[in-house]
């Protein structure tokens, strides 16, 4: 799995105080990919929803998305924008391993 | 896609609005006052002011001025009154009021005092009376909360302002076009509106009314097409619309307000109220959903809610990406009301309808909300 494109979210108020990017992936998000993100922080996986929702959160960043979609959102706190690249690197590496 | 974010901007627009904008763009530009080509054509700005005056209860409609929106209008009015002492704002106000007051007016030695509201956003006479002092000069009141849909008793506010000799500034951004407004009956000294919400115009339009006799220093100066040799205004004969006008925007607003006048604001209000009542009744019976406000006082086309255990932004994300339903999450640029509602940290999920929202769309939203709430039952 790779992030092929990322665009700054137009919903500037949605994640108040955070800077959000919507990331387009080269594959659809599956359960395996979601579980591979678990080491990144506090993990929420609502797999009872019609389309399972996941979120990873810590003090510096937040990742959220929906199983079956080929995109997800990364939001970083204003002072910690360096995490955007780190997460991107993690996702790209983990995905290649897990696919 | 189901669009329930009309409190941010209305969608779709009436076809007459789209046609009017297209016709405006295809027409020869109106080189005002510079030739005979426009003789016989009605001045769209004046016609729009007249329509707005009819809709908003303003007989002196020539004192309605166009701006880029309610934010610019509020900055103009709040900054131009050159007040000192205290200004009262309600806890329901939008940042387009709070930020100009806090940032611009500190230079004018004006203090902001917040009138506390009830949990549903309602302002009581007791709260008004306990906030006023001998230093109070003006009051700003949001007619319809953009968070709870609570409609304030503007007649009561007008009487209060008159009793204490306050300048009464009414913000009708959320209500103009969907709730009856009568600025003169209210006794409003100034009234601010936006064009792109229930007035059905396009983004980049709005304006304000200021009653005769109220001194207002303009926010902007520039070319107006009248007496170009004059560089300094004397005797307060200010002009408030410098620069080339947003003619496509004003044309859209003219068409939008025409659509509302033709349809009838009472009829629009009734239809939207019916939709909101369905929402209140159905959402309140679903375990795991908290609805803020109530259908008795919150009669505007806006409702705030939350799912137990789910943040507003996550809720909106799931609604949007799983169900194709667009709502809005967060504080909705009105941070203070959330202190009264108990939603200060993360805000709410806001659902807002328009004349074009159908009952079927509302039922689909309720079904989606129920499905989400049921899925979460027992999880949190």
Automatic annotation (TrEMBL), chain A:
Superkingdom field: Bacteria
Name the record gives this protein: Aminotransferase class I/classII domain-containing protein
Native organism taxonomy: Bacteria, Bacillati, Bacillota, Clostridia, Lachnospirales
TrEMBL record, chain B:
Enzyme nomenclature, EC number: 2.8.1.7
Catalytic activity, reaction form: (sulfur carrier)-H + L-cysteine = (sulfur carrier)-SH + L-alanine
Domain Aminotransferase class V: 2-364
Keywords: Pyridoxal phosphate
Pfam family, one: Aminotran_5
Lineage: superkingdom: Bacteria
Protein family (similarity comment): Belongs to the class-V pyridoxal-phosphate-dependent aminotransferase family. Csd subfamily.
UniProt-recorded name of the protein: cysteine desulfurase
Protein's organism: Blautia caecimuris
Taxonomic lineage of the native organism: Bacteria, Bacillati, Bacillota, Clostridia, Lachnospirales
């Amino acid at each position: 799995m790779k992030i092929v494109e990322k665009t700054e979210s137009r919903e500037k108020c949605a994640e108040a105080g955070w800077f959000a990017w919507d990331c387009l992936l080269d594959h659809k998000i599956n359960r395996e990919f979601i579980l591979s993100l678990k080491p990144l922080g506090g993990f929420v996986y609502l797999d009872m929803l019609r389309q399972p929702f996941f979120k990873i959160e810590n003090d510096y960043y937040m990742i959220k998305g929906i199983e079956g979609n080929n995109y997800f959102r990364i939001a970083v706190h204003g002072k910690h924008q360096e995490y955007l690249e780190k997460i991107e690197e993690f996702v790209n590496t983990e995905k290649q391993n897990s696919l | 896609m189901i669009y329930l974010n009309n409190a941010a901007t209305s969608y779709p627009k009436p076809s007459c609005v789209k046609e009017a904008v297209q016709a405006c763009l295809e027409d020869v530009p109106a080189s005002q006052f510079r030739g005979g080509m426009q003789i016989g054509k009605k001045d769209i700005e004046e016609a729009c002011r007249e329509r707005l005056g009819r809709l908003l209860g303003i007989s002196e409609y020539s004192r309605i001025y166009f701006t880029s929106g309610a934010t610019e209008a509020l900055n103009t009015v709040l900054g131009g009154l050159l007040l000192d002492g205290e200004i009262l704002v309600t806890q329901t106000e939008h940042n387009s009021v709070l930020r100009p007051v806090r940032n611009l007016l500190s230079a004018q030695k004006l203090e902001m005092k917040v009138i506390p509201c009830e949990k549903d956003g309602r302002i009581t006479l007791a709260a008004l009376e306990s906030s006023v002092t001998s230093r109070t000069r003006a009051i700003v009141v949001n007619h319809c909360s953009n968070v709870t849909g609570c409609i304030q008793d503007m007649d009561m506010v007008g009487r209060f302002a008159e009793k204490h000799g306050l300048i009464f500034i009414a913000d009708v951004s959320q209500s103009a076009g969907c709730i009856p407004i009568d600025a003169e009956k209210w006794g409003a000294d100034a009234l601010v509106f936006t064009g792109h919400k229930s007035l059905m115009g396009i983004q980049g339009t709005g304006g304000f009314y200021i009653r005769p006799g109220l001194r207002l220093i303009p926010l902007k100066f520039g070319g107006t097409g009248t007496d170009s040799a004059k560089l300094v205004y004397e005797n307060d004969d200010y002009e408030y619309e410098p620069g080339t006008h947003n003619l496509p925007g004003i044309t859209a607003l003219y068409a939008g307000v025409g659509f509302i006048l033709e349809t009838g604001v009472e009829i629009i209000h009734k239809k939207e109220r019916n939709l909101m009542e369905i929402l209140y009744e159905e959402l309140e019976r679903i375990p795991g959903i908290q609805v803020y406000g109530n259908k008795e006082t919150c009669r505007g086309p806006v409702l705030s809610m939350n799912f137990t255990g789910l943040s507003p932004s996550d809720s909106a994300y799931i609604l949007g990406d799983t169900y194709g339903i667009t709502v809005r999450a967060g504080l909705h640029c009105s941070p203070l009301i959330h202190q009264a509602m108990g939603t200060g940290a993360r805000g709410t999920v806001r659902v807002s309808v328009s004349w074009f929202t159908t009952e079927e769309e509302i039922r689909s939203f309720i079904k989606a909300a129920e499905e989400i709430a049921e899925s979460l039952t027992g999880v949190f």
